[in-house]
Specification:
BirA Bifunctional Protein, domain 2, Rossmann fold, Translation Initiation Factor IF3, 3 domains, twelve-stranded mixed beta sheet, globular, RNA-binding
Length: about 500
RNA sequence: CGGGAUGUAGCGCAGCCCGGUAGCGCACUAGGCUGGGGGUCUAGGGGUCGCAAGUUCGAAUCUUGUCAUCCCGACCA
């Protein structure tokens, strides 16, 4: 049962007052998700799911354009398969849900209650997948014999379960939705190219569609995916200055091929293990979307992902006026739909215009059009954009062209705003004191030298609660001294406090 | 798993200390006046007070247990 919610007010906690509460309020009030009866698990409501569907649609087409096909693998992984790749297994072991039984029976001591039937114990436990490398590589073994079978480029849309101690709507839930790509290649270079290619797909998606500027980089050993040789990532900055990992692409080397004995015969008839990648993004991106752009009035959605791009609100007195407006709106809607714009006409008479204005601001609909008798007389509509709250008057003639332009402008404006914010918060630090001060006073990415050891990284994490988000791909080499130990360093890395 | 809090109408809460007819706001239903930034009036409907035991003539209220959720921390996409 949700606690600590808002009073009956239709407002949300302000960002400044309590960022974390602002986020929770927003997700609930905008109708993206609900808490559920299951600890750590949420219900994704239709409006939130519609955003996910738009993300899926776009990503899926990008995956297909780069040669991937969709497939589906089982939710359960036999424990013996799960433990095959040791690093991967160890990394996920402490957050796995396990199926041990397959049957319930009536509780002899409590009428109407059920207990686990001790006689229905599984011989081998099943792990509910926290990620699917194990089951997929076990399957790939049967699919790959020759270099002619490669590359194998597969993606799956799925749910996974990670038993997190502490959860947050969209950002970290026990069960979450994602896609995971799993590819097999004949050469190391090809696999690395694939890893980078998919990182670029993610970065392009984040920036072009989510209007979310990201930094592409490589993870330090500490932060690397369990079982990977290298983890590439895109890192974004939220409005509270905390970083959020928005997607990862892993170069897995031959680790999984070796663990599952996946070999192929090359052109010279020599046997070798295949090279692997995996990459994924999750419903966490919805959390990123919310935290990156929204404000105290509600969501701000980028037009390219908004389930509804334009909402039309009629303003009328009496049925006669309403009918005149209806007629005009139907024609305008046809025009807008023909131009590929998703549009909703809210002529629900239960709520008044003011209520609707506030409601659609909460929902982050990019453009609102209001039409009243006054507008009809002048052949115009009132157009309000969500991101700036600016109101304009557009002629009804050629409306769709102007709306298309406006949606593009909004998309760009949201991106630029986020980018300016992010750029302003990538700050260099050269001393430990400066580093600590920046974390508190100007949270964001801190660019600093690091001696390259995991021990140092651990200590910094312990003392400053900041981690290395990534070593940016476009980094310039520069001699310096580690912010913490003073040891030699060849480049700066990005630190931040993160979600 | 440690710390803190909360479960009472669809939602948000009061009532509990000091046991005695279950309340308020919003939402909902019907109708009216309204309508360019969360309107208003009238009349209504809706509850095994998380669950289970106990104390008592009597429990939302006291006791014990239990389940669940939220927040903070450690862990993590």
């Amino acid at each position: 049962m949700p606690q600590r919610g808002l009073h009956m007010s239709k407002e949300i906690t302000s960002m400044q007052e309590d960022y974390s509460q602002w986020y929770n309020d927003l997700v609930i009030k905008a109708g993206l998700a609900d808490y559920s009866a299951v600890r750590g698990c949420m219900v994704i409501k239709p409006y939130g799911y519609a955003i996910w569907e738009n993300m899926q649609k776009q990503l899926d087409s990008m995956f297909k354009e780069t040669g991937h096909q969709n497939a589906y693998f089982p939710l359960f992984v036999p424990k013996s398969l799960f433990e095959a790749e040791e690093t991967n297994a160890e990394g996920f072991a402490k957050e796995c849900a396990i199926v041990t039984h397959y049957r319930l029976k009536a509780d002899p001591d409590h009428k109407g209650k059920l207990i686990v039937d001790p006689e229905a114990k599984l011989e081998e436990e099943l792990v509910v997948r926290p990620t699917s490398e194990a089951i997929i590589w076990n399957t790939y073994k049967g699919w790959i014999q020759s270099y002619r079978d490669l590359p194998l480029l597969i993606n799956q849309w799925a749910n996974v379960v990670r038993w997190e101690m502490r959860t947050r709507l969209f950002l970290r839930t026990t069960e979450f939705l994602w896609q995971e790509g799993h590819t097999a290649h004949a050469t190391e270079k090809e696999a690395i190219d694939e890893t980078v290619q998919m990182l670029n797909v993610y970065a392009d998606f984040a920036e072009t569609y989510m209007a979310l500027p990201v930094i592409k980089g490589v993870k330090s050993a500490n932060e690397r995916f369990a079982g990977a040789v290298d983890t590439y990532c895109i890192e974004a900055l939220m409005q509270d200055g905390k970083a959020l990992q928005a997607g990862t692409s892993h170069f897995l080397g031959q680790n999984f091929a070796k663990a599952f004995d996946v070999k192929f015969t090359d052109k010279e008839n020599k046997l070798d293990f295949v090279w692997a990648t995996s990459w994924g993004v999750s419903t966490r991106l919805i959390g990123a979307l919310v935290m990156a752009h929204s404000d105290d009035q509600g969501l701000v959605l980028p037009p390219k992902l908004a389930p509804i791009q334009v909402v039309i609100v009629p303003i009328f007195k009496g049925e006669e006026q309403k009918q005149l407006i209806d007629e005009k709106v139907i024609a305008l809607m046809q025009q807008l739909k023909a131009a590929g714009i998703s549009v909703k006409y809210d002529d629900n008479d239960n709520n008044r215009p003011g209520w609707k204005f506030a409601e659609y601001e909460m929902k982050g609909i990019p453009v609102r059009i209001a039409i009243g008798a006054r507008d009809l007389a002048n052949n115009v509509v009132e157009v309000a954009r969500r991101d700036t709250k600016e109101k304009m008057s557009f002629s009804m003639d050629g409306l769709s062209e102007r709306i298309i332009t406006l949606l593009d402008e909004i998309q760009l404006a949201i991106f630029n705003k986020a980018k300016n914010f992010r750029d302003d918060r990538v700050t260099p630090a050269d001393t430990w004191d400066e580093f600590l001060k920046l974390l508190d006073e100007k949270p964001g990415f801190i660019s600093a030298h690091w001696d390259g050891t995991g021990e140092t990284e651990d200590k910094i994490k312990e003392l400053a609660k900041a981690t290395i988000r990534c070593i940016p791909l476009n980094n310039e080499l520069e001699n310096g001294k580690c912010i913490f130990t003073g040891n030699a360093s060849k480049q700066r890395v990005l630190f931040a406090r993160a979600y």
